[in-house]
Amino acid sequence: MVSGRYLVKRFVHGILVVWGAITLIFVLRHISPGSPINVMTPPTASPELRERVAEELGLNQPIYVQYLDYLGGVLTGDLGNSYVRGAPVSQLLIDRAPATIELAIAATVIALIIAIPLGVISATNRDEPLDYGASLASLLGISTPNFWLGLMLIMVVSVQIGFFPTSGRGTGFVAAVQLLVFEMDAGGFVTWFQHIILPAITLGTYFMALITRLTRSEMLEELEQEYVQVCRAKGLPEPLVLYKHALRNSMLPVVTVVGLQVGYLIGGSIVVEVVFSWPGVGNLIIDALTNSDWMIIQGYLILVSVSWVTVNFFVDVTYTVLDPTVSLE
């Protein structure tokens, strides 16, 4: 049972980490080359015009005043306005983040559904053809660049077969659920699945290979423990021994990697989103980097930081569910 004291402690720790990340992002913004004034004014702008723009942006104030204003804005959900798009950054992220989070979750689910059983099969068939096949598949998954895999899936599956679209999102998961619940129409789920399956496979392939190898390694170690031999000596069915006892005790390292990788998937889906024209945060940040739109870049980095802290908070809580002997202090 997770104690309230432990949850409060982890929450405060997460707040401090996010504050540190926000402060670092602010410092990087001010030491990086280039200026927002150069983005918003032409090269031939007069000094008076540049000073007026600096005043409007608050860049003429002391650095500590800018930091306090920036921190206050973050606390109230105001991440400023995009220099290029002229729209609130928080609204841009709110519009784009659901697609990115949805893609990351779909990639994680696909990876886990395939990787954990494959790792168990590989461990229970050590040095046999199934083990060699699983090891080869995981090696290919780790070695294959996701942008190349995405392009190959588009060329082979989308262009040649024609069942899956080459780009776009179609409809969101929430919209598909609403369509099914209120209108009893499953067409939204079909459209959602057709659009998300290829990007999710592309994003989750490396993750799947990593979890397969880790599950195999942990299962091999657990299968050599005495309690497994005792369970078998008592006549327990082999699936019960494997999945209830050995696999559960193998999950702590896997949960750690899953937590880290989910954060990576949220922050590292940029290439996949560009390849599949997925309307997530990835395309938004590429445009911001191209145009030196630091307000969007700041907002994106804050979003990634909060995502990492949130995921790791739930990973710590999951530890105590899988293994109650883990210390909460």
UniProtKB/TrEMBL annotation:
| Membrane topology category | Multi-pass membrane protein
Task: Give the record's GO biological process terms.
Answer: transmembrane transport
GO CC annotations, alphabetized: plasma membrane
Q: Does the keyword Cell membrane apply?
A: yes
- Which SUPFAM superfamilies does the entry link to? MetI-like
Q: Which UniProt keywords apply?
A: Cell membrane, Membrane, Transmembrane, Transmembrane helix, Transport
Subcellular localization(s) per the UniProt record: Cell membrane
**PROSITE patterns linked:** ABC_TM1 (PS50928)
Q: Which family does it belong to?
A: Belongs to the binding-protein-dependent transport system permease family.
Q: Would you tell me the protein name for this molecule?
A: ABC transporter permease
Q: What species does this protein belong to?
A: Salinadaptatus halalkaliphilus
Domain ABC transmembrane type-1 residue range list: 97-315
UniProt keyword Cell membrane, yes or no:
yes
